[in-house]
Each structure stands twice: as structure tokens, then as C-alpha cells.
Amino acid sequence: MRIGNRTYKVDWGHFLVATSIAAFSIAYLLDARATSLNIQNLLLVQPTALFVLLMYLLVLRQCISVAEGALVPSRSPEPDERAARDEERKGLGRIAALIAVFGVFAFTVEDIGYDVAGWVFTVVGLWICGERRIWVLAIFPAIFAIIVVLGFKMMVPYPMTTLFL
User: Fold this and answer.
1) Where is the DUF1468 domain (predicted)?
2) How many separate domains does the chain show?
3) pLDDT for residue 144
4) Of the chain's two ends, which shows fewer C-beta atoms within 10 Å, N or C?
5) d(CA 70, CA 59)
């Protein structure tokens, strides 16, 4: 894309996903505000929507970059196409595995409890994404599950099934 005397490179996939998330958040916030301006109605929706929009502005800058001139030779060698395709397949495999693990999480969360299911999902998700340090796989998911479950128990009057908390 050319604007003025500069050429910009746009990562359209990331740009469209981030823009659709931001647009959905704005639409949801506007719908919630149209329904009621009561603080209980907007307690979670408005701060979350504003946080999503802030993150969108930070991510947007990464989706658009200035393209290098066509006459300037590349200093790094071109990556092997086969290696790039293999890496893309691995990435798609990770995504499919995360989707499957999330499906298992969604179907088992009521049976085994939000605390255990959240911990297991986080451990497996970190493992799929490449984390291999045992102490990180043990400590971070536990802290995350405790904060999320106790936080939701304090904020939302929904009886959450838990095993330990």
C-alpha cells in the first residue's frame, strides 16, 4: 500500500482479526450502555471494552510497517520455502491442538471444577506452545487459576464448581 512517498506493508490477517475483536467490543459496549447505564450492568463490560481498545491501538502499530525500498538488496538470505511451510504446518497444528484442548476444557469444567480445569488447560496450553520448564508449568498455571477463580467468585454471584477453592 502506498501513501504519499512511502510504501507500507500490512499484515492483513492480524489486522482483520484485531479490528474485528475491537469492533465487536465497541458494539457490545454500546449495546450494554443502551440497555442501562447502571453500574452493575457496566461493571465488567466497560473496563474490558476500554482495555480491548487500548490493546487494539498497541497491536495496530505492529500490523502496519514501512516497507523497505525495492532497490535495496536484502541483507539476510531468503528462508527456505520448505522450512517455512513446515513451520506453518506446525503452527496450524498447535492452533488445532489448542482448540481441541479448549473444547475438552469447556466440556469438563463443570465436572472437575473451574480451578482444576483452568489449571490443566493452562498447563497443556503452555506445553503446546513450547514451554518445557517444569517449575513454570507448575507455578504459573496454579497462580493463574487461583487468581481467576477467586476473582470471579468475588465478582460474580454464580455458584462455580471447584475442587479445591
Assistant:
1) 20-155
2) 2
3) 93
4) N
5) 26
